[in-house]
Write a structure and sequence with these properties.
Elements: H1 7-28, H2 37-50, E1 54-55, E2 67-71, E3 74-76, E4 90-99, E5 102-111, H3 117-135, H4 143-155, E6 160-161, E7 167-169, E8 176-180, E9 197-200, E10 203-205, E11 211-213, E12 220-222, E13 228-230, E14 233-238, E15 241-244, H5 249-255
Helix pairs in contact: 1-2, 1-5, 3-4
């Protein structure tokens, strides 16, 4: 059952989403060759707790850490460890927080040092597909309109769109209805309604769409060992249009980047 939110509830969700955004911005400057993902995880957890929230992932379904960190052929749900990152790695960092009773949950894929042109293109196309999908989250559309838009953009570049992992509704629970697949046919799935809040998150592989699982019970890998990328935003349907509650601005500030990619999805830019 879809659970629409009031404007007041959406503002609480924005606070949670922006804390995730600030956490990702904090660690962005640390994402360099030689750093371990356990160090990144510790920094993130301390920052989240210092800001009056708790890590949304730690203990959720038994997950052991505050961040999911998934380098290269790992798609999602990677467990932080003591292996140093190397130049040329790409790594998805997925973060969640619980604050004021509501979850924030989004992700960014970082390039570590100098990455190959092929890896850089995978990151670019996957992030483009996120915004292409968000544009379809509007009054009158349905769930698979979003997935279809993401799928078409990525498959035309020869990439595999993961089927087993999907975005989701978000609110007082980390995972609410509806599921938000990154593939589908236009006109199918649940109808979007005013006040919906969702996490849209393309998970796109350089090669096959197929995946496999590590024996740790969490880490998901591409079946062919080729890299994967993952970007995620939290979005609310307000006045029939998508408004992004999260932001990559703090990441871009940390990395010295400038982007206007989020502008069309912001009703009030003073809130970030």
């Amino acid at each position: 059952m879809i659970i629409p939110k009031t404007r007041a509830q959406i503002e609480l969700m924005r606070e949670s989403a922006l804390l995730v955004s600030k956490t990702l911005g904090l660690i962005a400057k640390e994402m360099v060759p030689g750093v371990t993902t356990l160090k990144i995880d510790k920094l993130a957890e301390e920052f989240i707790r210092d800001n009056g929230a708790v890590p949304g992932f730690k203990g959720l379904y038994g997950f052991p850490n505050s961040l999911c960190v998934s380098p290269n052929a790992q798609v999602v749900h990677g467990i932080p460890n003591n292996v140093p990152l190397q130049s040329g790695d790409i790594i998805s960092v997925d973060c969640g927080v619980l604050k004021n009773g509501y979850y924030g949950d989004h992700a960014y894929s970082f390039a570590i040092g100098e990455v190959t042109p092929e890896a850089q293109k995978l990151l670019q196309i996957t992030k483009e597909s996120l915004y292409i999908g968000i544009r379809e989250f509007k009054a009158g559309n349905r769930v698979e309109d979003v997935g279809n838009a993401i799928q078409k953009h990525c498959e035309q570049h020869g990439y595999g769109v993961v089927r087993e992992l999907v975005g989701h509704g978000l609110g007082t629970k980390m995972h609410e209805d509806p599921e938000m697949p990154n593939y589908g046919k236009r006109g199918r799935g649940k109808l979007f309604v005013e006040g919906m809040t969702v996490a849209i998150e393309p998970m796109i592989n350089m090669g096959t769409k197929n995946i496999k699982h590590l024996k740790d019970g969490w880490t998901i890998l591409t079946a062919d060992g080729k890299p994967s990328a993952h970007f995620e935003h939290n979005v609310a349907l307000i006045d029939g249009k998508p408004e992004i509650l999260s932001t990559f601005k703090y990441i871009y500030d940390a990395l010295g980047m400038v982007s206007d990619e989020e502008e069309e999805f912001r009703i009030d830019n003073t809130k970030i």
